[in-house]
Amino acid sequence: MAKCVLTVDDSKTIRDMLKFTLAGAGFQVHQAEDGVDGLRALKAAGTVDVIITDINMPNMDGFEFIENVRRDAAYKSTPILVLTTESGADKKTRARAAGATGWIVKPFDPQKLLDVIRKVSP
């Protein structure tokens, strides 16, 4: 059975790139355009193996999205990777405190992204 990934990013271009990369590697992909939509998509998907989220998004940013995901016991151990243009140590620390598993800076290398997903997913 294919592993399932939820991607949350307000950029359609990034969502398309992620879907192309992940679907091409055999992953089932669910997508959302911000944190609010991400929580809705997560509930609709039921179970996902990995979540990839941006930080800077309208309506609900990535930090708040991660905190909300972690409050739900069903997703307490789901790996959450942050994929963002941000690289500051303070933001990485905040994301880790919110419950993020890892941090990847855009633009992403498709093979490295797949390697990280395979490393963190059960």
Keywords:
alpha/beta, about 120 residues, five-stranded parallel β-sheet, about 45% helix, globular
Summarize the structure.
Helix content is 45%, strand content 19%.
Description of the structure:
The chain contains five helices and five strands. The chain has helices at residues 12-24, 35-45, 62-71, 89-98, 110-120, and strands spanning 4-8, 28-32, 50-53, 80-84, 102-105. The chain has a five-stranded parallel beta sheet with strand order 2-1-3-4-5, sandwiched between helices. The chain is an alpha/beta fold and 122 residues long.
Report the span from N to C terminus: 13 Å
Which band does the percent of strand residues land in? Answer: 15-25%
Looking across the biggest beta sheet, what order are the strands in? 2-1-3-4-5
Largest sheet: 5 strands, parallel
Mean pLDDT figure: 96
Level of helix content? 40-55%
Structure class: alpha/beta
User: SSE string, helix = H, strand = E?
Assistant: EHEHEHEHEH
Low-pLDDT residue spans: none
**DSSP, total strands:** 5
Radius of gyration: 13 Å
Helices, by number, come to 5
Shape: globular
SSE topology:
Layout: E1 4-8, H1 12-24, E2 28-32, H2 35-45, E3 50-53, H3 62-71, E4 80-84, H4 89-98, E5 102-105, H5 110-120
